[in-house]
Amino acid sequence: MQTSMLYTIGTALNRARAEGQSVDLLVEGAWLAGRVVASDSQGVVLEDGSTHVVVRLDRIAVVRVQGAGAALDEDARPMPGPRQTALVVDVA
Q1: Does CATH number 1.10.10.1450 belong to domain 5-68?
Q2: Is 13 helix (H, G, I), strand (E, B) or coil?
Q3: Does the predicted TM-score (pTM) go above 0.70?
């Protein structure tokens, strides 16, 4: 039996939290950095040593996980993007 795992932003943040790794998040054009100290299905809390930042998950465009332990599972695949539809025009 073959299994696969969907690698989402939430998965990346949960793994970074479990491993104690720092992350960089791209949120509406700005990079935020810190350690994930809490997360749920709505958002994530980053700590950079002196401040805490709460970010809604639906605002995160990119997660960059720092450190060597950030490797993907062998069967991980990225979350699919929006469904694309093709417009076919017959000009003959």
Answers
A1: no
A2: helix
A3: no
